[in-house]
Amino acid sequence: MDDEQHVVPVFFLSDSTGISAETMGNALLIQFPETRFERTLIPFIHTVEDARRVVAQLDEAMAGPITPLVFCTAATDDVRAELHKTRAPLIDFFEMHMTKVESIIGQRGVREAARLHGVGDIKRYNTRMAAVEFTIEHDDGQSLRALEKSDVILLAPSRCGKTPTSMYLALQHGLFVANYPLVDEDLEADSLPQPIQPFVERCFGLTTTVDRLSRVRNERRPGSRYASPEQCRWELRRASELFRAHRLPVIDSAAKSVEEISALILQTLKSDATSRRRQPEGKTS
């Protein structure tokens, strides 16, 4: 019972999907690793009447033993004004940032929900959707077609975090990502898998710890050789040797979130692009 009393209720409010509210709110909550949070997403608050119902829910939460946290990204003025009537403390990301942007630009934004959460830049949206389609097609080595279009190729033994990282890079950053599982046959060789060899400069290796890999695999195939610590140790050792021999950037996924792994990949891509631009014409490293 004591544990339940120390769980902090968290509400993410939005007049669209709530992705922005969750992303920004969780970026703050992650700074409190010892605190337990009970998260509730309330998206698509389109009307003042919708907002009133949400206010009633928030006020009810205020009657509990722990004061709730409320994160809001509603863009529509009348909806947001109604939400501010709650007795719960409301952290209004849209108002606090939009007001500052308006003051710098010197004009008022339109403050429409679709502008904040919708398609927005149609060219960027289409690029991201094409990236997602490519990444789904090339997940887990399912297709080797058009690998030359890839921006990134992730290599790793099975269950090291290739798929979630690939999807995040595609959806959030519009990168065309292929991921390729290193199986026993690949790990017994000293060269990279043949289909990947022409694109080594796009490759990143992922690794993890033996304990974590064995635990994750046991959830999928309990008690199997595939999940045994011995097999996991061998695969990770051979993968590391392969990455080192071919000078691939390597990221340990054991203690990093998908966002952190993706940020490291983007940073490396940016650094490599800058390095190539600085090289004299006709000279390669």
Counted by DSSP, the helix tally is: 12
State Rg.
23 Å
Spatial strand order of the main sheet:
2-1-3-4
Identify the overall geometry: globular
Largest pleated sheet: 4 strands, parallel
Structural class: alpha/beta
Could you tell me how far the N terminus lies from the C terminus, measured between alpha carbons in angstroms?
Answer: 62 Å
Indicate the low-confidence ranges by residue numbers: 115-119
Which range does the strand content fall in? 5-15%
Proportion of residues in helical segments:
40-55%
Q: H/E order of the elements?
A: HEHEHEHEHHHEHEHEHHEH
The counted number of beta strands is 8
What is the average per-residue confidence, as pLDDT, rounded to a whole number? 89
Written account of the structure:
With 285 residues, this protein is α/β, with parallel strands linked by helices. It contains twelve helices and eight strands. The strands form two sheets. Strands 2-1-3-4 form a four-stranded parallel sheet, with helices on both faces. β1, α2 and β2 form a beta-alpha-beta unit. α3 runs parallel beside α4 and α8 crosses α12. The longest helix is centred in the C-terminal third of the chain and has 21 residues. The protein starts with a helix and ends in a 7-residue tail after the last helix. 29% of the residues are buried. About 2% of the residues have low confidence.
